[in-house]
Specification:
With 276 residues, this protein is an alpha+beta fold. It has one domain: Sandwich (Jelly Rolls), CATH 2.60.120. A 9-stranded mixed β-sheet has the order 1-2-10-7-12-6-5-3-4. Strand 1, helix 3 and strand 2 form a beta-alpha-beta unit. The longest helix has 14 residues. The protein is globular and about 45 Å long. It binds 2-acetamido-2-deoxy-beta-D-glucopyranose (3 copies). One 2-acetamido-2-deoxy-beta-D-glucopyranose (NAG) binds next to loops. It is found in: Cytoplasm; Endoplasmic reticulum lumen.
Length: 276
């Protein structure tokens, strides 16, 4: 039976157009399709923060456990690639999926300063829809709320069981997850703790690291964004931190007691595995 546009009932044309439009929009550019619905900079973003000029943390693909232990575990940070595949977890962390599964869950936010004091509880949906805006460059860290850590693992177990942590353990330590979502320009200023890993699921996270014996110059209540703007440009080359921006799917390892500050360059979803 002959078929063609000329023979089609006029009423079918809009339907056909709709089908084409749906096909076209599902074939968007990969970058756009892969943001998980987390807007890159978010509404009302001030000027975007750039990545570092030169990444000074080593990147290693398929690193063996023996090499990890020998060269990094107790001595320096490293960015790991290709060790785990968290594509399934990534799908579950899209904005739409997380809101559908956990919109009503209460999440605990902390202030984004070095010695984070204040905690605020609110429904996840409210955090995502009303508080996930870019960092105000004039705000103080102790006046900025950040969703990271303090996770309710009972309530979120159905999500976290899909996460594959980096397969490297350290003798005498137990891994513990910390999950977070934060706006562009947000971050945690310099602090230190035990060793661990941090993986970016969506967005990019810029890191600044100093060894334990090299206490950085910083104000504990100022944001990382303010530190980058006010302190970083004047640092002598010998006083500069190790730094690098990690991309989705990459994992940064930080050794015990290394100072570090973080800066989310985009709206970011991330998860840490602390070894302590
Ligand atoms: C930082 O802010 C907290 C309260 O938000 C305050 O108690 C503390 O004294 C401040 N620290 C400094 C060094 O100003
Ligand atoms: C934040 O810290 C600054 C300086 O450390 C202090 O002056 C201010 O009162 C603190 N703000 C809040 C909300 O605690
Ligand atoms: C975690 O969530 C469960 C289930 O909703 C709840 O019963 C429990 O009180 C929560 N735990 C904390 C520490 O908030």
């Amino acid at each position: 039976m002959p078929r063609g546009g000329g023979l089609m009932a006029p009423g079918l044309r809009p339907l056909l157009l709709l089908a084409f439009w749906m096909l076209a929009s599902s074939a968007r550019s990969p970058a756009e399709a892969n943001d998980g619905g987390w807007p890159r900079y978010g509404p009302g973003a001030p000027v975007a923060v750039a990545e570092e000029e030169r990444c000074t943390v080593e990147r290693r693909v398929d690193l063996s456990y023996a090499e990890f232990m020998q060269h990094y575990a107790f001595s320096r940070p490293v960015i790991l690639q290709g060790l785990t595949d968290n594509s399934r977890f990534r799908v579950l962390c899209s904005r739409e999926r997380l809101l559908a599964s956990f919109g009503d869950s209460v999440v605990r936010l902390s202030t984004a300063n070095t010695y984070s004091y204040r905690k605020v509880d609110l429904p996840f949906q409210e955090y995502v829809e009303q508080m996930l805006h870019p960092q105000d460059p004039l705000s103080m860290g102790n006046d900025t709320l950040y969703f990271f850590g303090d996770n309710n693992f009972t309530e979120w177990a159905s999500l976290f069981r899909h996460y594959s942590p980096p397969p490297f353990g350290l003798l005498g330590t137990t891994p513990a997850y910390s999950f977070g979502i934060a706006g562009a320009g947000s971050g945690v200023p310099f602090h230190w703790h035990g060793p661990g890993f941090s993986e970016v699921i969506y967005g990019r996270k810029r890191w600044f690291l100093y060894p334990p014996e090299k206490t950085p110059e910083f104000h504990p209540n100022k944001t990382t964004l303010a530190w980058l703007r006010d302190t970083y440009p004047a640092l002598a080359p010998s006083a500069r931190p190790l730094e690098c921006t990690i991309q989705a799917g990459e994992v940064l390892y930080f050794p015990d007691r290394w100072w570090h500050a973080t800066l989310n360059l985009d709206t970011s979803v991330f998860i840490s595995t602390f070894l302590s």
